[in-house]
Amino acid sequence: MDQIGVIYNSNIDDLFAYGTRLGFNKEEVMDAIHNIFHKIMLKNSLSELDNVKSYLFKSLRNELFNEFKRSRRVTLVGDEEGVLPFELQVNVEELLIEDEFKAQLKSKIEKTLRKITPRQREIIYLRYTQEYGYQEISEILGIGVPACRNLILKALRQLRDSDVKYFLFLCIRSQQFNNILTFL
Amino acid sequence: MSIVIVMVGGFLLGNSLKKALAMKIKDFLTNEYFIVWMLSKDADGAAYWEDYIKRNPADKEAFYQAQFEFNKVHFKKEKLSEVEKQELFSKIINQYVPDQGKSRSFLRKKMLYPVAAGLAILFSIGVYLQLTATDSKKVEPIIGRVGETKEIQLITGEQEYVFKGNTVLKVDGSDIRDKEGGTFQAEEGTTYNTLVVPYGRQSELTLSDGSHLWLNSGSTLRFPTKFSGIHRTIYLEGEIYIDVVEDKKRPFTVETSQFNVDVYGTSFNVNAYGDSFDGKDRVVLVEGSVAVETKEGNRAKLSPNEALLIEGESLSKQNVDVSRYVSWKEGYLSFDQTPMKEVLMELSRYYNLSFSKESNMDSDQTCTGKIYLSTDVSNVLETLSAMVDSSFKIEENNN
């Protein structure tokens, strides 16, 4: 019982945050967390696991996805099986930049994240908040490792192409910058 | 002369360099490719940027600074309160029945019902706290408020017990006992009970882990009959003095509507009335070590003889004479050049009094000394009159 308490306490915040990101409300996520812990205790299966946290993430995701299929309240986003709307909001308050730019940056990051698919957002979320490798993420999402990495590469390439012009401008300006330095 | 020119030139260069650097950092931060690469930390992106810096070495510093800043970006996270986490954990633990070959669907049905009930309880607590919180903010500080209940109440499950006078309670197994030998059956297991102490009353309570607390007038405390899991959490509105029994495996948290106090075996006083004269809540540490965390995530550690003042998001520390803040539990109030307003406010808590607006509360008069909290309020007012050279008159209020 002690072991389950330790596991519960060190994972509850991350699990709850992940569940609500998947688009479920507080009660639904609490219900799902209850059910996955219950199953773990009934099966008494924790000792066989390498990575408890990613196992919990995967279980929570499956539990919520089953709920989502059952209730059919939410319309499916995209055409892939198992895709849930994964909305992300960011907090930039800790950055040492002026408030005006904070607002600008926040909306820029959120706008950029809306340009990519929910699945790509979910992978990014797991990598950024949990520092997971593609191996762990592919297990949580139930897709292959190459598919998982390709989703990120696709997002990156798409955005790099749209930004080519912008970087041309950056290069030109840095050229001028060098000129000033030599001049002085 | 030439030196002067170089200096001016140097100054200008410094500024324009800074400006150019800042602009470039912003360019990186708002670049979509940079954003998604920073968030995904993909190796492919790393190779791209390495190449970019090779081609544009002047951007190197801006690039590293932009990376450094971007690492402070967080995704917004929804969070459960400590009490909610505790209650969810209790539900998980309490329904744990080793599998005896029942079918899965049967177990599932059996499980869902108590969860639904648990959520209903959580919901009603949320509403209750909300209401009291708004209520206490509306109260005008000068006119003391008269609580709805005049006696101490213990609410456990469906049961409600009322005590005459001050009371000393102890959680004993699945019961709560008072000093006179009365036994009150508490709600089973880890469900939270509520103790309401109205103005003019005080209560003492020993929790199931042996931690001993004094609850001041006009306070409400929620506590479980038994702590489960590896957290001990109680919920407070008002003021307590608490001696926490040390248990390194199970940290103790006092949660209020504005902040949490995390404890590891210690004595301290929490004042979270939300209507104090200075508009600040207060944590005073007598012994041990505590950390206070506001709901906004601001955190501060306290050492003995320190007081932390909490006003919204701002925290400030003071060195204090702790006896002045904890003497109420010994039956007296101690003042040291305390403004009259504050003295009268504290007295009104104990005796359920209102001071009329004409009582010259705005004078800069201060009060120094001790006032014993005798059961007869006119004695107290007499002492006060002598201390501050004023007179008081008691009028019955008929509401």
UniProtKB/TrEMBL annotation, chain A:
Keywords: DNA-directed RNA polymerase, Sigma factor, Transcription, Transcription regulation. Pfam families: Sigma70_r4_2. GO terms for biological process: DNA-templated transcription initiation. One of its GO terms (molecular function) is DNA binding. Transmembrane segments: none annotated. GO terms for cellular component: DNA-directed RNA polymerase complex. Residues 108-159 form the RNA polymerase sigma factor 70 region 4 type domain. Belongs to the sigma-70 factor family. ECF subfamily. This is DNA-directed RNA polymerase sigma-70 factor. It comes from Flagellimonas marinaquae.
